[in-house]
Amino acid sequence: MPRPVVLVPHDPAWAARAEALIAEIHAAVPGVFRAVHHMGSTAIPGLAAKPVIDLLAEVEALEALGGARRALAGLGWRWRGENGLAGRRYFTRDDPETGTRAAHLHVYVTGDPAIAWHLAFRDRLRAEPATADAYAQEKARCAALHPDDSAAYAACKQAWTDGVAAEAVRGWKGA
Questions:
Q1: Which residue of 55, 115, 124, 140 shows the fewest CB atoms closer than 10 Å?
Q2: Is 82 helix (H, G, I), strand (E, B) or coil?
């Protein structure tokens, strides 16, 4: 089911919310994740975004999630499997009061190239305000074209993000 695309001004509280979610995850499933990173637009200061916290977690092996799924479900995380991306395991979390999407948890095996893609992209936008501004314009353009379909919105901006991420990965120093 398509979700509407609602971009809101950056909220500095997103960083604290991400840190709280990360701490909660580590406490619920100690030792499962090697690292959990805040990524996506809510991790870029000043960037308008859908108010959904994106987290990227690293595991030694996807099988490690077997025992963690129940604990994460207890925190409100819904298992989505690969959800269209081979090598990824995906969870979503909705706000219990409003039912709106609150967070995504993308899980990859440490060393998966997707980790570098996401984190290098994030780091480039944090370091280059002009690139972040250009991304804000692309997001606004795609949101105007696809206001009621988050999947079409994501597809609309994919060529832009893929191009910037490919450049960013080449010069990335790691998390």
A1: 140
A2: coil
Tell me the pLDDT tens digit for each residue of 27-42: 999 999 999 999 999 9
| Close Cβ partners of 90 (under 8 Å, ≥ 6 residues apart) | 80, 81, 82, 83, 104, 105, 106, 107
Identify the CA nearest to 47 among candidates 106, 122, 100: 122
Task: Encode pLDDT of 150-159 as tens digits.
Answer: 999 999 999 9
Rounded-to-integer distance, Cα 144 and Cα 146, Å? 6
Name the 3-class secondary structure at 89.
Answer: strand
Strands 101-109 vs 53-59: parallel, antiparallel or unpaired = parallel
**Amino acid type, 169:** V
Residue type, 156: C
State the first-to-last Cα distance of the chain, in angstroms, to the nearest integer: 34
CA–CA separation, 71 vs 47, rounded Å? 32
CA atoms of 64 and 58, how far apart (whole Å): 10
% residues pLDDT > 70 (the chain): 99
C-alpha 4/C-alpha 28 separation (Å) is: 31
